[in-house]
Each structure stands twice: as structure tokens, then as C-alpha cells.
Design goal:
Blueprint (H helix, E strand, L loop, with lengths): L7 H7 L6 H9 L2 H4 L6 E3 L6 H18 L3 H13 L1 E5 L2 H23 L5 H14 E5 L4 E3 L5 E5 L1 E6 L6 E8 H8 L3 H9 L10 E3 L6 E3 L3 E2 L3 E2 L8
Parallel strand pairs: 1-2, 2-3
Antiparallel strand pairs: 3-4, 4-5, 6-7, 7-10, 7-11, 8-9
This protein binds S-adenosylmethionine (SAM).
């Protein structure tokens, strides 16, 4: 059984107690259908070492294998899509890194098992790049990135939206501020209080736009990237 506590100090300082596998599986069963949708997005805001995201990724990759194992091309693209859909935040940099490493190892092993060959270097680099972008060292209460002492920086947490708009190998990335996304998606009183505590920067007009199709106010991306083959996603991409 995996250790749930690393040290008393970490429990006291950061409430760090990892969830046991049995509870993880039972909780994922509560949203079983979503876990089987390859592109359904999951965010774990205090991700720890990523036990929930690992279970979600395992379930998604089992669907990818079932549907696409006959074609390495289709398997790889959909396995990348599964990876793009999971997001995490942790205030401790070592946890965020363990989480990325664990998810990468899982993705890589599943690839080899499903395709009966190793993933290419480019695909592996793309997978690592996506994980580096999606698993962030930050404060899930203030929604800001943190420094090595877990203190807020003045950088808001930014998440990438990844899509395959033409259903081929080209991937599109758009970056959004997490505080703006949460503002759109929740009426929750808890977040209303957080925003009033930390100022209401997220409501600034520069963070919103009118959707040309629905005419609704939607979050505005702070960056858009050109469409590229997912295998060209690299540290510098
Ligand atoms: C109870 S553990 C849960 C970890 C994981 N979700 C699990 O179930 O195994 C809480 C985690 O939240 C992190 N944490 C504590 N305060 C946080 C904050 N303000 N923002 C983001 N992460 C935080 C800790 O470092 C720790 O990894």
C-alpha cells in the first residue's frame, strides 16, 4: 500500500495526507462515465502526487486502447488527447514534479503495452511538455503561482486549453487565467468570497470577450498559439 503521510511536519504545514487507492477508485466511480470520455477535462486543485489524476488517466487510456489499438497513429493521437485533458495544482513543487513523473510513466507504459512498441522520442517529449504545462505549482486558494517558499508570486495560474480542431494531428493551444475560468463556471459562494478577498482582477474587461456565435460573454484567452503537429510540442514549442 502506498504511503499516505510523508512526515508530521508536512501534514501540519500543508495538510498533506494522500488518499488511499480504494477511496480514489470509489470516488472516480461516482463520475465513471466522465472518466471514460477521452477529452473530458479534470482539474485537481490540491493534486499532491496525483492519485486521482492517475486513476482518471488509466481509465481514459483503457478506452483509447479498446478503440484505437489497431492503429498506432490513432492510439498515439488519442493518448495525447487524454493527457491534455487532466490538470493539477499543488503548492509544493516536489509534489507537482512527482505528479508529472507518475503520469508520464503511466502514459508511457500504457503506450508500450497497447502498441507493442515504445512511443517515439517526439511523442514522449510532447507528453512531458503537456504535463509540465498542465500540472502547476501554485496556490489553489489565491489562484496565483508560488515561489520555492510557497509564497504567492504576482503571476496568476494560467491553464492551457488543448484541442484538435480539425481532428487530425494538429493541436491548438489557448491559454486562460484560472481565476477568470472559475468566475465563468461557478456561482459558488466560496469563490465569490475568494475573489472579494483578493480583489476582482478576474472581472476586468480585458479578460472577457463576446463569443461571435453564442453572443455570450466568455473568458478571453491571454495567448493563442499557432496550430502545430502535436509531435512538435517541445520545451521551446
Ligand atoms: C490532503 S493532500 C491531498 C493530495 C491528493 N489530492 C490526494 O488525494 O492524495 C493536500 C495537498 O494539497 C496541497 N496544498 C495545501 N495547500 C494548498 C494550496 N493552498 N494550494 C494548492 N495545494 C495545496 C498539499 O501540498 C498536499 O499535496
Amino acid at each position: 500500500m502506498a504511503k499516505q503521510v510523508k512526515s508530521k511536519k508536512r501534514v501540519a504545514d500543508h495538510g498533506e495526507v494522500f488518499t488511499a487507492e480504494r477511496e480514489v477508485k470509489a470516488m472516480c466511480d461516482l463520475v465513471a462515465d466522465e472518466c471514460l470520455r477521452i477529452d473530458s477535462r479534470f482539474l485537481e486543485p490540491a493534486v499532491g502526487e496525483g492519485v486521482f489524476l492517475a486513476e482518471v488517466l488509466t481509465r481514459k487510456l483503457s478506452v483509447v486502447k479498446e478503440k484505437y489499438k489497431k492503429s498506432a497513429y490513432d492510439y498515439e493521437r488519442n493518448a495525447i488527447l487524454a493527457l491534455t485533458s487532466i490538470y493539477g495544482v499543488d503548492i509544493l513543487a516536489d509534489n507537482a514534479q512527482v505528479c508529472r513523473d507518475k503520469l508520464f510513466a503511466l502514459w508511457n507504459e500504457e503506450y508500450t503495452a497497447a502498441c507493442k512498441k515504445e512511443a517515439s522520442d517526439e511523442a514522449r517529449e510532447a507528453a512531458k511538455y503537456i504535463l509540465k504545462t498542465n500540472i502547476i505549482c501554485g496556490n489553489a486558494l489565491s489562484l496565483m503561482c508560488v515561489d520555492e517558499n510557497q509564497q504567492d508570486t504576482d503571476e496568476p495560474i494560467i491553464f492551457a486549453e488543448w484541442t484538435f480542431p480539425f481532428n487530425d494531428a494538429r493541436i491548438k493551444r489557448r491559454d486562460f487565467r484560472l481565476d477568470v475560468l472559475l468566475k465563468e463556471n461557478t456561482e459558488d459562494q466560496y469563490y465569490a468570497e475568494q475573489f472579494s478577498l483578493f480583489g476582482d482582477d478576474a472581472m476586468g474587461l480585458e479578460n472577457w470577450m463576446i463569443d461571435p456565435v453564442t453572443h455570450e460573454k466568455v473568458p478571453k484567452p491571454i495567448r493563442e498559439y499557432t496550430l502545430i503537429h502535436y509531435r512538435r510540442l517541445t520545451e521551446n514549442g
